[in-house]
Design a protein that fits this description.
Blueprint (H helix, E strand, L loop, with lengths): L3 H15 L5 H11 L4 H14 L1 H15 L3 H25 L1 H9 L7 H10 L4 H23 L1
Helix pairs in contact: 1-2, 1-3, 2-3, 2-8, 3-8, 4-7, 5-6, 5-7, 6-7, 6-8, 7-8
């Protein structure tokens, strides 16, 4: 029988992939399924991990956002990406409300996950609790779609 760490290690690797911004479960689910892991457990582990990262992202944005953009190099290179997220998100969210935020996060493409959804909600000054629920639902839908596509 395998020791416990040997059974847990592949799932820890999936967690690490899931926590990478812009990759998230869109990358970790196909990796897990491709390695022959149980698709249901891969879906559960990656989706739960991706949902659990929402609160820390919001806390990080509260703490670091203004400090972050005081650095000239970051302001110069990241500001355009932030503005792009704001412009893409604002059109959907203004039209569809929090359902638009859910749909934005649910699109199973890199760069439309929990990190970007939290950033959009932060930039648009949306209510946190409702935004977190909308992002969580979007992550879950994306997890289902990516899992089905990976099978």
């Amino acid at each position: 029988m395998l020791p416990l760490w040997a059974m847990i290690e592949p799932y820890l690797n999936l967690l690490l992939i899931t926590f990478v911004p812009y990759i998230e479960l869109r990358g970790s689910i196909p990796v897990g399924i491709g390695l022959g892991m149980d698709p249901l457990w891969v879906f559960i582990v990656c989706t739960v991990a991706n949902v659990l990262i929402i609160l820390p992202i919001f806390l990080f944005l509260d703490f670091a956002f203004e400090r972050f953009f005081r650095i000239v190099w970051i302001h110069r290179h990241v500001k355009s990406k932030v503005d792009s997220v704001r412009n893409t998100a604002i059109t959907r969210i203004n039209r569809y409300g929090l359902l638009g935020l859910t749909a934005f996060v649910a699109i199973p493409l890199p760069g439309t996950g929990a990190y970007t959804g939290c950033l959009a909600a932060y930039l648009l000054d949306l209510e946190r609790k409702r935004s977190a629920v909308a992002i969580g639902v979007g992550v879950s839908v994306a997890g289902i779609l990516v899992t089905l596509a990976s099978l």
